[in-house]
Amino acid sequence: MPMRIAKASLIDPDQNAFYGTMAVALSLFVFAYSSRFGQISILAYYGVWLPLVLLDYRRVLGNYVRFLWIFGFAAFCFLSVFWSPAPGISLRTAIQYLTHIICALIAMRTLSIATLTRGAICGCAVVILYSLLFGVYHFDPLDGSYSFVGAFASKNQLGFYASLGLLFAYAGIMVLRLGGLWLLAGAGTALLSAYSLLASQSATSVLTTVLILGVLAGLQVLGRLAPTARKLLFAGGLVVLVVGANAALGLGAMDAVLGIFGKDSTLTGRTYLWQQGIEAARQSPIIGSGYQGYWVQGFPEAERLWEEFYIGSRSGFHFHNTYIETMVETGVIGTVLLCLVLLTGFIGHLKRVLHERRSPESTVLFSVLALLLIRSFVEIDIMHPYHVGSFLLYFSVGKLTLKSPAYAAMPGLGQPIHSMRPHAI
């Protein structure tokens, strides 16, 4: 009997705070540095999630018959093997992506939002500390500048983890009201993240972080209002934001902001890269060239772009736009399927934030999805396996398949009125 209780505690969101926190932290470290530590790190990632299925497969896996759209993009990646110019690469990566989604959904069913936040705070802190200890500066031949990339190959990835560190630190302290040592851990992670964000000089990460923290603060203000007033204020604020953004762009605000970061209107060559991606997508607009079938060593177009952008490693490069990258590899069909997942999660959690009396879970996850949505126009965080962006995407979307936990109306997070255990779907 004691062994049975111990096993159950690993998959119970109300009892597995320690295990869940360590599992999330380990996962984030693997996502950040699997290219450095190799296959053993990937096996460690699978090792903290997949064995949970053996404890209670029905509860851990759930029933997704009514939610097959969650797997739509992954399924199409498998189909693309049949027309991919590199079928071996497409098949291997499609398997990795599907199993990555399964791990994210296992995490979703076994972790509370508080445990995810604690794990993300620890994980981001460890990732950033490792980069500060073993990181380097890289020279960018396109703009002639040096920037701190940490232990990554790109300053944008260091900036992304710094953004997540600030987001989850804010969420833990201000939204979930974690106290004690977690208050200190959140503050420490925030300081490390802020320093790394500035050191990376990633305009994308700095701008998106400021915007997302503003979103989180705004959602907290909305949460104090009644649902009807909340919806009206949100709608009015959205109109003001759209009108103000258009006016600012017309007055040259974009060029002014880019100038602060030493960038020009070409976004350091990204507009040219986007043009090349659009041209590549036109070769097979409906089904694409095949998942992961474009950036392959020996293929003429990939080799040309690697040479033009000084990518000596001939790997780890992309079109810096999720929709263009997805169009090139999986065409219109794949792009629609991936957008369905992202937008369903974004709108679904927004509905919960606006409709429910108190929803700290959806407040945090909506902010995560908003960050991924904004970054999707300049990065590709959600379409690859073993990436923190795709893990958080499917974790967040998966939470919509469960009943939202109801929280008591009291200062701080309070205690859930109903258990946060996953409900049967």
Task: Jot down its keywords.
65% helix, 17 helices, globular, 2 strands, 425 residues, single chain, disordered C terminus, mainly alpha
Written description of the protein model:
With 425 residues, the protein is mainly α. It has 17 helices and two strands. α2 packs parallel to α7 and α16 packs across α17. A two-stranded antiparallel sheet has the order 1-2. The radius of gyration is 21 Å and the shape is globular. It has helices at residues 2-9, 17-37, 39-49, 57-61, 72-79, 87-110, 113-134, 155-175, 181-200, 203-223, 227-250, 253-260, 270-281, 300-308, 322-355, 360-375, 388-399, and strands spanning 136-140, 145-150. Mean pLDDT is 87; it is low at 407-425. The chain has one domain (2-399).
Write the layout of secondary structure elements.
Blueprint: H1 2-9, H2 17-37, H3 39-49, H4 57-61, H5 72-79, H6 87-110, H7 113-134, E1 136-140, E2 145-150, H8 155-175, H9 181-200, H10 203-223, H11 227-250, H12 253-260, H13 270-281, H14 300-308, H15 322-355, H16 360-375, H17 388-399
Antiparallel strand pairs: 1-2
Principal-axes shape call: globular
Mean pLDDT: 87
The gyration radius over C-alpha positions equals 21 Å
Give the fraction of residues assigned to helices.
55-70%
Strand order of the largest sheet: 1-2
Q: Low-confidence stretches at least 5 residues in length (pLDDT < 50)?
A: 407-425
| Total of helices | 17
- The count of domains is 1
Strand content: under 5%
